[in-house]
């Protein structure tokens, strides 16, 4: 899969299919494989672009000077320019929605539609922010996500009651355990701090187009609960959808439901029959 040099570093992305463009922006600590079911279903009808966040998957390290989610949004816009994509439907889950909304607000002329999944555009509640920052400090000090930390971090992403022996759970745990110290310290931890120290975007949500925006959330999402999704949908004035039997990574926990909702939304945005 190809790379684009953005701010001096190689950004890894998938570009598959033809038709109206869809940009898939994923969660912190996950690579583009979290969209595998959606890529398979959407790419026969759409041009699907999925990127790896800096320090994730095959992307290079966080570029020097990257200090905010606005920088991440600008870098993603540079990728669209590199690919000659004028307009896109952006589907952002977790941090992908956090910077995706910033891209939509800064360059509305480039957006056909916006799906905000399992995300929150307000500030991180202070107790949670302090807790995550304490975890980042442990990772930074040791250069590894230790087994006790994995026991804390991995369950955050899934619905309660998921089988911890399942391939989905175990593969994610193994990927986190294998992250090398340099990548953790130079990219993953700084990206986490950028994410959880984000500024408040809620006062600006009224500027998003409610007719071309959709909020989705796993009905059992622990870090980004449905109450946050409802709050954002109300501020935007847009539709919202709960994904049944899903936690934070709803794209993989209930892929059939998520894919169906995205195909419906895309068909309405692009007047394309699928």
Summarize the structure.
This protein is of the alpha/beta class and 274 residues long.
Q: Provide the β-strand percentage band.
A: 15-25%
Q: What is the string of helix and strand elements?
A: EEEHEHEHEHHHHEHEHH
Largest β sheet strand count, sense and barrel closure: 8 strands, mixed
- CATH topology term: Rossmann fold
> CATH class, please?
Alpha Beta
- Which segments are poorly predicted (pLDDT under 50) over 5 or more consecutive residues? none
Please list the strands of the largest sheet in the order they lie side by side: 1-2-4-3-5-6-7-8
Question: What is the residue-mean pLDDT, rounded to a whole number?
Answer: 97
Structural notes for this entry:
- The chain is of the alpha/beta class.
- It has a single domain, classed as Alpha/Beta hydrolase fold, catalytic domain (Rossmann fold, 3-Layer(aba) Sandwich), CATH 3.40.50.
- Helices cover 43% and strands 17% of the residues.
- It is built from 10 helices and 8 strands.
- The chain has helices at 36-42, 69-82, 95-106, 126-142, 147-156, 167-177, 181-196, 226-236, 250-253, 255-270; strands at 3-6, 9-16, 21-25, 47-51, 88-93, 111-117, 213-218, 239-243.
- The chain has an 8-stranded mixed β-sheet, with helices on both faces.
- Strand 5 (88-93), helix 3 and strand 6 (111-117) form a beta-alpha-beta unit.
- The two termini are 26 Å apart.
- The model has no long low-confidence stretch (mean pLDDT 97).
């Amino acid at each position: 899969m190809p790379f684009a040099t953005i701010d001096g570093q190689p950004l890894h992305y998938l570009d598959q299919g033809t038709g109206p463009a869809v940009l898939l922006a994923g969660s912190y600590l996950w690579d583009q494989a979290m969209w595998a079911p959606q890529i398979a279903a959407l790419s026969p009808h759409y041009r699907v672009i999925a990127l790896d966040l800096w320090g994730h998957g095959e992307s290079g390290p966080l570029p020097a000077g990257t200090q905010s989610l606005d920088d991440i949004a600008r870098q993603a816009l540079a990728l669209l320019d590199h690919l000659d994509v004028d307009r896109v439907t952006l589907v952002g889950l977790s941090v992908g929605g956090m910077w995706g909304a910033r891209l939509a607000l800064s360059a509305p002329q480039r957006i056909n539609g916006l799906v905000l999944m399992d995300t929150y555009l307000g500030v991180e509640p202070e107790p949670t922010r302090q807790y995550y920052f304490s975890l980042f400090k442990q990772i930074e000090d040791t250069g590894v996500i230790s087994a006790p930390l994995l026991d804390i971090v991995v369950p955050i992403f899934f619905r309660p009651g998921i089988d911890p022996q399942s391939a989905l759970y175990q593969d994610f745990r193994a990927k986190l355990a294998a992250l090398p110290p340099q990548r953790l310290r130079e990219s993953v931890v700084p990206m986490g701090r950028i994410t959880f120290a984000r500024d408040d975007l809620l006062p600006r949500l009224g500027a998003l187009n409610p007719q071309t925006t959709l909020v989705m959330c796993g009905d059992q999402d622990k870090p980004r609960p449905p109450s946050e999704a409802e709050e954002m949908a109300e501020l935007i004035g847009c539709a919202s959808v709960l994904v049944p039997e899903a936690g934070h990574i709803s794209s993989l926990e209930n892929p059939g439901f998520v894919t169906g909702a995205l195909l419906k939304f895309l068909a309405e945005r692009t007047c394309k029959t699928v």
